[in-house]
Design goal:
Blueprint lengths: L2 H15 L23 H12 L16 H8 L3
Amino acid sequence: MSEQDVKKQLRDWVASKSKAGKPVNDDTPLMEQRVITSMQVMDLILFIEKLSGRPVDAGKLKKGVFRDVNTIYENFFHA
């Protein structure tokens, strides 16, 4: 799957979970703008695992890794 495909799927997932009703682009601060809540991060991790086909390394779960779609891609999909 290409980088753009992955980012589109991430944006679509975020938009489907967002109660903010704001458009989401690759650099929208997801937590700061309350696009998603901290409670939704577990669901996001599960979605990342499904999309990537591998488990998320717990060592990568640090502050800021879910900042925006670009950061999520860099931390969990970029080779």
